[in-house]
Amino acid sequence: MDMLYDIALILVIIGAINWGLVSIANFDLVAAICAGGGRFGNINTLSKIVYGLVGLSGIYIAIDYFMAMM
């Protein structure tokens, strides 16, 4: 299970960096890597998959965090 947590944490960090870049520079790193673009709003299927995995990872990390607090 530690490997799954590590992968989820990496994806959450990537998502946080991506949203920071979108906010500061209007640059979508995930779209740039997945589609060769980079302008915010240029989303293809691969980008959507990555965004979905980042979202699921965030949920997983949050659940793990709150379960550890109990």
From TrEMBL:
Keywords: Membrane, Transmembrane, Transmembrane helix. The chain crosses the membrane at residues 7-29, 49-68. InterPro entries: DUF378. This is DUF378 domain-containing protein. It comes from Romboutsia hominis.
